[in-house]
Amino acid sequence: MREKGYKHTPETKEKIRLAHLGMKPSAETLIKLSESHKGKTAWNKGIPRWWDSPTEYVKGQNLGEKHPNWKGGISRAYKTGYYSVEYKDWRKQVFTRDNFTCQECGDVGYITAHHIKSFAKFPELRFELDNGLTLCESCHSKTDNYMGRNK
């Protein structure tokens, strides 16, 4: 018999855990568990859900101009920037023109389409073929406007 207040050591707990690992409870045990739960109320029974309360949450209350982060309908740059069809076409044209080769060192590994005049500062030149140059990542990182270096 165990003494009152006796606790298993961590080593003993681990041995018990490993001994029972992968074991499935018997049908008798499952029936006993089921019977022990019958008639008991779930812990969250009767607690209102946040979407059921009409006073706290109103559908559409934070849409558009009503949202605290609203900035006047300005869309994100990715729609017109690096993820646009125009950018992908420009990039492909720059690579094709430069024969998929770095124009600084001649490497043909991982290449990047570099904007000679900054993508952010000169939006009117973003998709001009003359504003592009094919560079490897090493040469690209040495440019003066790499990753917004000259902000």
Notes on the protein architecture:
This protein has a domain at 102-146. Strands 1-2 form a two-stranded antiparallel ribbon. It is an alpha+beta fold and 151 residues long. The mean pLDDT is 85. The chain contains 4 helices and 2 strands. The chain is 26% helix and 7% strand.
Overall 3D shape: elongated
Percent of residues in helices: 25-40%
Derived from helix and strand composition plus strand pairing, the structural class reads: alpha+beta
Q: What is the tally of beta strands?
A: 2
Report the β-strand fraction as a percent range: 5-15%
What's the N-to-C terminus distance? 75 Å
Task: Please give the order of strands in the largest beta sheet.
Answer: 1-2
Q: What is the overall pLDDT average?
A: 85
DSSP helical segment count: 4
Radius of gyration from the CA trace?
Answer: 32 Å
Write the layout of secondary structure elements.
Elements: H1 10-20, H2 27-37, H3 85-97, E1 111-115, E2 132-136, H4 137-140
